[in-house]
């Protein structure tokens, strides 16, 4: 049973991060940038999205270390901000598309959980219930993490769409694309693990708010 539950969480996680990335590419396409579409990254085929470290290693380590949450990432979908019709506003929507997708998936998971467990009285150990519980939990974690203003995260990209903040970033090493390509993700992962207890508390608050909101 534990193996089945693990596979459910792994599959849910993979497609949650994949849909997150596809959302970025799809919104970019709506605003005129077809880079992701030409690259074949608007596909649900997991093979073209999987990042060995973010999609497999990190989730495995977190799951088997009993961290209490599952997090990771897929290969970033390529977006060319200069091809977007709408400037900073368009890139703002592209940056938030993944987070919005995760929130929508979490809401759908919560609604199905409420109906199945409270209206239909289906047991919590039912595999379908476990699946939608995983959908809610994983997407809440992904949305919360990606809101953080760390290099490589959507929250950071969102902040760069505001002139004054972007000007400050450009004057720092974070504004150097070569530096970011080499060290940006490493810096973010280091910060995440350094402040993991505080981040865990934030995730706990988000979960508590969500559960109260849907009466779960």
Query: What is the count of β-strands?
Result: 0
Report, as a whole number of angstroms, the end-to-end distance. Answer: 24 Å
Largest sheet: none
Structural class: mainly alpha
Q: Which segments are poorly predicted (pLDDT under 50) over 5 or more consecutive residues?
A: none
The total number of structural domains is 1
**Can you give the helix content as a percent range?**
55-70%
Q: Beta-strand percentage?
A: under 5%
**Mean of all residue-level pLDDT scores:** 83
Shape: globular
CA radius of gyration is 18 Å
Helix-strand topology string = HHHHHHHHH
Distinct helical segment count: 9
Quick summary:
69% of the residues lie in helices and 0% in strands. The chain has nine helices and no strands.
Would you write up a description of this structure?
It is a single chain. This protein has 216 residues and is mostly helical. It has one domain (2-214). Helix content is 69%, strand content 0%. The protein has 9 helices and no strands. The protein has helices spanning 2-30, 35-38, 52-64, 87-119, 127-146, 154-159, 163-170, 177-194, 196-214. The protein starts with a helix and ends with a helix.
